[in-house]
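Work Package 3 (structural annotation) set out to generate three-dimensional models for the target panel prioritized at the project kickoff. During this period the team completed the workflow that converts sequence records into discrete structure tokens, so that structures can be stored uniformly alongside our sequence database. As a representative example, we reproduce one entry of 249 residues exactly as it appears in the project archive.
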Amino acid sequence: MKLMRPACLVAGTILDEIAGFIQPGVTTRQVDNFAAERIRAHGAKSAFLGYRKFPCHTCLSVNDEVVHGIASDRELKLGDIVSVDVGVTYKGFIGDNARTVPVGGCSVAEQQLLDVTEQSLYLGIAQAKPGNRVVDISRAVQNYVESNGYSVVREFVGHGVGRTMHEEPQVPNFDEGKANSPKLRPGMTIAIEPMVNAGGMDVKILKDGWTVVTQDGSLSAHFEHTVLITDGEPEILTWVKKPSVSRVA
């Protein structure tokens, strides 16, 4: 999986650059245009643009938008939260990651949602060890999210990733109750991505055919990393600084 590392490093770097660009007053279209420029500058291509006819370079989901938000002339306001999902193709491989960014700061309640969602990601990653199963990741995410009073989205899940955007296995953020889930083996690369709602779990898709929003209008957060299953501790491929899981979980 040496060839996955450069793609994931590029994806993580671009996500950092986009997060630094976001501020009150910019439009999501400006954010997407900036992302397109940075993707080109790194010699990569957007893995999202044109995928099933998706029209943008990134997914930008604001406030009650869960995932797959489409860039527009909407201006970001102080206190908004925007989930930035970046997937790139670099030298034939995919790097995929996401982060929810507060726009110029946010409320205590919003920050708590972001913190719980991000921590649930690392708790899931900590279970990505050989001999475990996908459901061990799912349970870790679900148990932490629900113990903090939030809801896990069911309709959209994590996934395997490599030469194509969505590969097997699927990686739900909740226990599906199946007798057997896929076993984790060294060399597997998976995208773990909790999508967490402040209110109920139900979502709906807007008329644009892409943007997913919470059914009850509550806020939603989304964090994602591409992770390599190793013989020991999982490796977070899309984290530029690559801290150990034990330190962040």
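Residues 244-249 have pLDDT under 50 and may be disordered.
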